[in-house]
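Let us practice reading a record.
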Amino acid sequence: MKFEILTGAFLCSASLLALLGTSRWVFLPLLAMSFACAAVVGWVTWVVLLPLTLLLCAAMLLRQTQQRWIVVGQGVVLLTCIGLALHAFAGFNNPALITPQVLSPGAVPWSWYFNLDKALIGLALLAIWPSMAQRPPWFDVGRSFAWGLLAALALVLPLALLLGVIAWAPKWPAWGWLWLANNVLVVAMAEEVFFRGYLQTQLAARWSALPYGATLACVLVASLFGLAHAAGGWQWVLLATLSGLIYGTVYRYGGLLAAIAVHAGLNLVHFAGWSYPMLARH
């Protein structure tokens, strides 16, 4: 049990330090220690060196001055991150922390996996582009978080109720705080770093000469974020797209920390107060 706890502790510490803008030479050793502990308990094998090597090669390509190598590097980053998100790389034996169970009356069974491959996405991108962690003044972060969370609660939750995918079901299991830490430092962190910090930033920079280029980038990435939730049906595509528009707007004005906080905050309200993950279809 000691190495299992150390795996999570090192990983969460690495994520937190990375988000706070700490040097990659500080948080990457913590990531390495997390994976070393995970290897001891069989959660990862040596095969994980493949995506790690791909990301390292991509980082080296992105440092080149010739545009063709930069394009190749971007492609390697994108495909590797997608592969990690889809759990397509061998070597990750993500442990089931919660086996399938029904958390709320009428809800579908839910299981919880500690996804080390997903966590790697956010940390790798922050190591390659440390500027993602740059934040505006704390006042702007707090203000963007406040209005973003209010917008999410005022728009997304009522729409979910209207679509019949959730119902009032307050709860807080004994392991809720562990879920919250994972939700903030693994789930929301990886998704916001990839969709907003990486995709939205890259597209906005590429379309900077276009009228409303930044807005177009936000809308397109929100649509992709919605499609990433297609497994839940068209209702979740719609809900995730709307959420993505809010997260993307918060990111534009409040930075990555604010976007992650709004994302995690909405997930927390959903988890604690409503059917989780969703009502079963009859």
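A brief commentary: The longest strand covers residues 96-101.
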